[in-house]
Amino acid sequence: MREYSCVHRGRAEPLDLHLAMFLPTLLNQSSPEQMEKFFIPAWNLDIIGTYAQTEMGHGTHLRGLETTATYDPATQEFVLNSPTITSIKWWPGGLGKTSNHAIVLAQLHTQGKCHGLHAFIVPLRSMNTHIPLPGVVVGDIGPKFGFDEVDNGYLKLENVRIPREHMLMKYAKVEADGTYVKPPSAKLTYGTMVFIRSMIVGEASSALAKSCTIAIRYSSVRHQSEIRPGEPEPQIMDYQTQQYKLFPLLATAYAYKFVGQYMNQVYHRITGDISQGDFSELPELHALSAGLKAFTTWTASEGIEVCRMACGGHGYSRCSALPDIYVNFVATCTYEGENTVMMLQTARFLIKSYQQASAGHQLSGIVSYLNESERRLQPQSVSSRPTVVNVNDLASLVEAYKLRAAKLVEVAAKSIHQELQKRVSQEDAWNNSAIDLVRASNAHCHYVVVKLFAAKLGEIGDTGVHSVLSTLALLYALQGIQQHSGDFLQTGLLSVPQLSQVSQRLKELLAQLRPNAVALVDAFDYCDEMLNSVLGRYDGNVYEHMFEWARRSPLNKTEVHESYHKYLKPLQAKL
Amino acid sequence: MREYSCVHRGRAEPLDLHLAMFLPTLLNQSSPEQMEKFFIPAWNLDIIGTYAQTEMGHGTHLRGLETTATYDPATQEFVLNSPTITSIKWWPGGLGKTSNHAIVLAQLHTQGKCHGLHAFIVPLRSMNTHIPLPGVVVGDIGPKFGFDEVDNGYLKLENVRIPREHMLMKYAKVEADGTYVKPPSAKLTYGTMVFIRSMIVGEASSALAKSCTIAIRYSSVRHQSEIRPGEPEPQIMDYQTQQYKLFPLLATAYAYKFVGQYMNQVYHRITGDISQGDFSELPELHALSAGLKAFTTWTASEGIEVCRMACGGHGYSRCSALPDIYVNFVATCTYEGENTVMMLQTARFLIKSYQQASAGHQLSGIVSYLNESERRLQPQSVSSRPTVVNVNDLASLVEAYKLRAAKLVEVAAKSIHQELQKRVSQEDAWNNSAIDLVRASNAHCHYVVVKLFAAKLGEIGDTGVHSVLSTLALLYALQGIQQHSGDFLQTGLLSVPQLSQVSQRLKELLAQLRPNAVALVDAFDYCDEMLNSVLGRYDGNVYEHMFEWARRSPLNKTEVHESYHKYLKPLQAKL
C-alpha cells in the first residue's frame, strides 16, 4: 500500500475509491464481524471495492435513488435490483473493470415498508476469475473530460442475492425476521461530508497553487513584444495585464490554503464534540463547508484556465500540465454535491439564521453578523450613512465584506417575502428567489475567506513573511471589491471616488508583488516531478525541454507515419 | 475535395491548414508562374502544405520571429535557417506528419540588409517516399488539450536551399542579383486578418449555440430533486438558477450570430473599397475585429463550460460532446492573436480616437460616441445628471452601454495622462494603464454587440419572431448590466433602485422565455449527427443511448480487462 501511493503522484487512479471511500466506509459502518470478514481482506487488496451511490438518472437528490434491496426472511438474504434504466449505478471510480466488490446504496424494503437508503456490500466479480457474477451487469462508462486512468463504471443489478450480514449494520439493522432497527442519529453522516468538502477546498488551493507556479515561472522565462522600442523583449511578467491575471490568483491560492487548514481544524474539533454527543456546531459547519466547496472550486477552476491561457499557445500543449490540471480539477464543481445545489444549502442556513435574528434570537458563530442587519441595513440609511471603509486597511475591508454579505442575505430574504405576498407556496417563493440566494451565499463565503486570510496574518511572527502575506491579503480583498464593485456601491459601502482609489491601489500592489512573485510560488514547494510541467520547471530551461518532450511524441516513433501509407498515398494516387 | 469536407463534420483535421491557409495564401500571393507550379499540384493534393509562422519562442510579436532566409546570388537560392532553439517553427497544423511542403515566414536577408518577414515555399518531404529532405528536422509537437486529430508540428531548418522562385513574389520581390523590391502597401494583409477574425466570431456563436442546444434539451429531459414536496421531480429547466445559467447564454449565441453576420458583410463591402484603393474604413474594422474576436471567444469559452456543468455529472462524459466542444473552441482565445493583445489593439484605436476627438476632430463611424464624451462626461455631472435609462427599453439600454464605453475610454485615457505627468515614457504610461485599457475595449465591444442585436430586430418582419428575439435582446442587455453593475453605478447611468428593477425584470424574462427555450435551440437547426451528443439528442431519448454508448467503451471489449492479469492479480499474489 505504501508503494502504491507513489505510482502517479497527484493523479486519479482506479484504486482511489477503494482507499478513499470503500475502506473508510467499512471502518465507520461495519459491525465487528463485518470488520473481520471484509475489512481485513480489503486492506490486503484481495477485496477491491468501490462506493456505488450515484445512478444514471439521480445524483444530488438522494431520496430519488431507485436501486432496491428487498429483504427475504425465508433465505435471510437481500435481493438487489436496478428496476429501471435510470436506476443503473453510474460513475463510481474503479467500478468498471477494477473492483470485485462495491458498497451499494439502495432503498431498503423489509416487511412491506421502505426505510430509505442503506449501504450493502455486494460482490461483483469472481474472486478467482474476475468474471462478473450472475445478475451483475458491470462495465466502463466510456471516455470523459479527464480521469483517463480511472474506470468509472456502471452497474445493473438483476435479482442479485446477498446474505443479510452484507448490510452495513453498525447503526441501522435488519434482524433475521426482517424487523428494522433505526440508527441513533441521522446527523452522523454529516461529518464525513464536511471532511470531504474540507479536503476539496484544500485541493482547490493545491490545483491553483500548481497552476500559478507554472504560469508565473514561465512568465519569467518567456519574452515577448516590447514595452519600450529598441529594448530587448521583456519578460511577459512585466506586463500589467499579465500581473493582473496571475497575482490575484496567487493570492487566492494562499487564501484557500488557509481556509482549508481552518476547516480541517474545525472539523477535528467538532468531531471531538460529536463523539461526546454535542452536535450544536454541526449545522453551521455543514452549511459553511457546502458553500466554501462551491465557492473555492468555481473560482479555482476558472483560475486554472486563466493561468493556462496566460501561458499563450504553449499553455495549450499538455507539456504545460495545465490542461490535465484543469480537466481533473474541474470535476470537483460537480461531484460531492453540485455547486449550485451546495450554494443553495448554505443559503438555507443563512435565511434560517436571518429569520431567527429577525425574530429576536441572538445568533452566535460566523453568522452573528446577521444580528446587526435589521438595525443597520435600513434602506433609507444606505445613502445617508457615512462611508467608513478604509481601502488600505484589511480590517476595514473585512468589515465591508461582512456588511455586503449581510445586505445580500437581506435582499434574498426580502425576495422570498415578496414572493410569499403574491400567495405562491413557500417552495415556489424559494425557487423564484434562487438567483438572490446563490448571490447571498457567494457573498457570505467571500466574507469568510477574507476574514480567515486576515486572521491568519495574526499568527505570523516573521516580519518579512507577514509583510508579503499582508500585501497578498490586501490584493485579494481589493480585487474582490473591484470585481463585485456593484455590490459595494449598491449597498453604499463604498463611494465612487473610493472605487477609483481601489483601482489605483491594486495597480500599486501588483508592482509591489512583482519582485516576490517567483519566490511566492517557489514557497508552495512543488518539485518538478510533482508539477510534471515543462513550462513550470524550476531551472527555467523551458525551450530545450519542450523540444525534447515533443520528440518523444507517439507520432514521432517513425519518420513516416502509417497514415501516409494508409490514407495519403492512396488518396494522391486516386486524384 | 468535396468528399473530404464530410469526413468529420465540424472537427479539426490534418488538412485544415492546407485548405484554409496554404491554398489561399498561394492564391493571393503567387506570381502567375508560381500559380502554375504550386497551386495546381496543391489543389490536386500532390503538394500538401501548411503555414509555418509561429516559432517556439515567438508568437504574437511578428518582428521577433528569428527564422532567416538569406539570398545567395551565386546560386540564385535562398538559404533557410533556424538559428536558435527558440526559432524552431512550432504549432502549425498538419506540419508534423502530413505536409510535404510549407509556406515558411522568415526574415529576408539580401545584399547585407534585412527586409523583414516574407513568405517562402519550402519542400519538406520527398514527393516519392515522404521522408524528410536533408536539413529538414520535422515532427509532431505531442499531445494537446484538444485537436487530437491534428499533427501540429515543429520544423527546424538547417541550411535548406530553395530556388529564388520559391519566394512568394506577387507583391514584394527579390531580383536575380539580389535587389529587393518593396510591396505596394502593407495594409493589404489586414484584410485577411479581419476575415479570419470575423469567421472566429461566427465560430463563437456556433460553439455556444451547440452547447446551449445540448444543455437546454437535456435540462428538459433530466428530472431532479423537488420544488414542491410530494410532487414528481421537476425538469431541471424549471429551476431559476438553471434558467439563469442557460438563457443569457442562449441570448448571447444569437447576439454573436448577428455580430458575425455583420462583420462578414462589412468585410465584403470594405474589400470592394480596398480593391478600388480606398483604405479609409480599414483601421476601424481592423480594430473592431480584434476586440470582438477576443470579447466573443472569452465569453463563449466560459459559456460552454457553464453549459457543460449545467448538465451535472453527465456533462463531464464525452458522450455529452461538451468536453470536446470546449477544448477545441477555447484555442480561439489564443490563436490568431492572443486575446489580451487583441484587446489592447482595439484600445489603441479607441485612445487614438479619443485624443482626436479631444483635439476637436469630428469622429465618424462606430467611435463617434467619443465626440460627445468631453462634453457629457464631466466628473461633476455624474451625480447631478438625471438618470434617463429606461430598463424596459432596448434603445435606452444601448444608449447606456454607449455612455459606459465612453466613460471607460475616458478613464483609460486619463490614466495614461496621469502616468505621463509622473514623467514616465509613453510606453510605460501605456503599460501602467493596461488594465484600464482592456476594460475600455471590453465595454466598447459590449456596446457594439448590444447595438447590433438591437439593430437586427429592426430587420425582422414576423411578429412572433420579433417578439421572442426582443425578449432575448433585452435579457442579453440587462444581464450584462447586472454583471457589470459597478460600471453603470459608477458612471451614474443607473441608480440603486433601478438596479433592483433590473434584477426583477431579469427574473420575469427568464420565466417568459422558459416555454420557448427548446424551440429557440431547435431553431439553430443542428442535426444529431452534427451535435454528436447523447445528451443533446433531438428525440430526448437520453438514458437508453447513454447506456448503449457506454457499452461501446474501448474498455468493455473484454469482460475481464488485461489490466487484471497484468497488474491486479500479480499484486494480489504478492501481498
Helix content of chain A: 40-55%
| Main sheet makeup of chain A | 6 strands, mixed
Q: How much strand content do the residues of chain A show?
A: 5-15%
Structural class determined from secondary elements of chain A: alpha+beta
- End-to-end separation of chain A: 59 Å
Shape of chain A: globular
Record field, number of beta strands of chain A = 11
Instruction: Tell me the Rg of chain A in angstroms.
Output: 27 Å
> What is the overall pLDDT average of chain A?
92
Q: How many distinct helices of chain A? A: 20
Low-confidence stretches of chain A: 1-7, 379-384
Oligomeric state of shown chains: homodimer
Largest interface: A-B, 121 and 120 residues
Describe this structure in words.
Chains A, B: GO terms for molecular function: acyl-CoA oxidase activity; FAD binding; fatty acid binding. Chains A, B: Residues 190-351 form the Acyl-CoA oxidase C-alpha1 domain. Chains A, B: The active site is at 336 (proton acceptor). Chains A, B: Its cofactor is FAD. Chains A, B: Residues 10-48 form the Acyl-coenzyme A oxidase N-terminal domain. Two copies of one chain form a homodimer. Chain A has 575 residues and is an alpha+beta fold. Helices cover 53% and strands 10% of the residues of chain A. Chain A has 20 helices and eleven strands. In chain A, α3 runs parallel beside α5, α4 packs across α14 (463-483) and α5 crosses α13 (434-457). The radius of gyration of chain A is 27 Å and the shape is globular. Chains A and B meet through α4, α5, α6, α8 and α12 of A and α4, α5, α7, α11 and α12 of B.
